[in-house]
Design goal:
homodimer; 154 residues; mainly alpha; Arc Repressor Mutant, subunit A; two-stranded antiparallel sheet; disordered C terminus; DNA-binding
DNA sequence: GCAATTAGCACAAATTAGATGCGCTTTGAG
DNA sequence: CTCAAAGCGCATCTAATTTGTGCTAATTGC
C-alpha cells in the first residue's frame, strides 16, 4: 500500500516530543506515557534513528534520547530512510528483487522509467519536509499546555 | 511501506498493453502471455479497473478488456485509487481506523496536518501521471517490434 | 560500592495485508 | 451447440510488520 509504516509514525511522534523537550534526554518510557505507543517498537525505532545519526542516545539513569541535529536539518526523508529504507515504488525496484537480478535485466519494461520519476519527486517532498515544519503548521499543542493526546486507538 | 502494490503494477502493465493494441479487446490470457503475470490476479485487477470505469469489459468469445477513455484521461491516480483505495500515508487516515473512531477524535495530533499536505501533493503527482506519459517516456518498445519482455523474475 | 534507571538485544509469536489457485457460472460469437 | 472469455466465491499461502517478554550492559545518584 502507499502508506508509511507505523514505525515511521512513531518515529515522527517521538521526534516531535523530543523537540518539545528541547535538548533534554527523553526516555522511551516517557514517550510512551505521552502517547499510547508500544514500548518495544518505539525503542527499536529510536535505536534505528540513533544509528542513522538523527538522534543521540544516552544510557543509564537520567539517560534517553535527544535530537542529534537542529529540527531544520531533520527531514521526513531521513526518518523514512532510516526506518523503511529508500522508497521503492514498484516491486522491481526493491532490494530483494534487485539482488536476485530479477528485473534490471529487462531493459524494455514499459513503466519503469516514468515510475522512477514519480518516486524521485516523492522523495524530494520527503526530504523537504523538516521536523520543524511538522510542528510549525499542524494542530500541534506544545507539551506544557496540552492534555495527553493520542494519534491512535490502541 | 511506501510502495505501490503488485496489483497496481499489473494494472499499469495491462493498460500499457491495451494501449498498444489500440482499441481492440484484449483478453487476460493475452496479457499474461505478453508478460509473465499470474492470471488470477490480473483478472481481478482488470475487473476492479472495469468497475471504476477505467477499462470496459466484453464477455464471451473474442471479448476481453479495452480502455474506456483516452490514454490522456487515464492517470496513475485512477489506477491506484481503483486498486488500493485513496492513499492514506498514516495509519490514522486509513479506513479501518477511521471507522473505529480511532483518531479523528484527537484534534491535537502533532503530525497529522503536515502529513496530510505531503499526501495531497503525492496524490497530485499521481493524478498528473497519465497513461500516455507512461509510454511516451519510458524505455517502452511498441508491441510489434518487441520481443516478449518481463518486469519481474517469476 | 550499591541500587535504580535506561538503552540494547535476542527469541519468538501474533497480526495484517497481499497475492494466488481452482472450479464453477454466465455471456456472447460463430 | 460449442468454444472462449469474463465474473465469482472459497481457501490458502506467503510475506511483511508489529509486538511481548525477559535478560544484559551502561550510567547515574546516593
Amino acid at each position: 500500500m502507499l502508506q508509511l509504516t507505523k514505525r515511521t509514525e512513531y518515529g515522527m511522534l517521538a521526534l516531535v516530543h523530543m523537540l518539545d523537550r528541547d535538548g533534554e534526554y527523553v526516555s522511551v518510557r516517557e514517550i510512551c506515557e505521552r502517547y499510547p505507543l508500544p514500548k518495544r517498537t518505539v525503542a527499536e525505532v529510536l535505536k534505528d534513528l540513533a544509528r542513522n545519526g538523527v538522534v543521540e542516545s544516552q544510557r543509564g539513569a537520567g539517560g534517553g534520547y535527544t535530537l542529534a541535529r537542529s529540527p531544520d536539518e531533520i527531514t521526513l526523508g531521513h526518518v523514512v530512510s532510516a526506518l523503511e529504507g529508500a522508497p521503492a515504488l514498484t516491486s522491481c525496484e526493491s532490494a530483494l528483487v534487485l539482488k536476485n537480478g530479477g528485473c534490471e535485466v529487462q531493459p524494455s519494461c514499459p513503466i519503469r522509467s516514468p515510475i522512477h520519476r514519480v518516486r524521485e519527486r516523492l522523495w524530494q517532498m520527503l526530504e523537504h519536509t523538516t521536523l520543524r515544519s511538522l510542528v510549525a503548521s499542524g494542530g500541534h499543542v506544545p507539551l506544557h499546555t496540552a492534555a495527553a493526546s493520542a494519534p491512535h486507538a490502541p
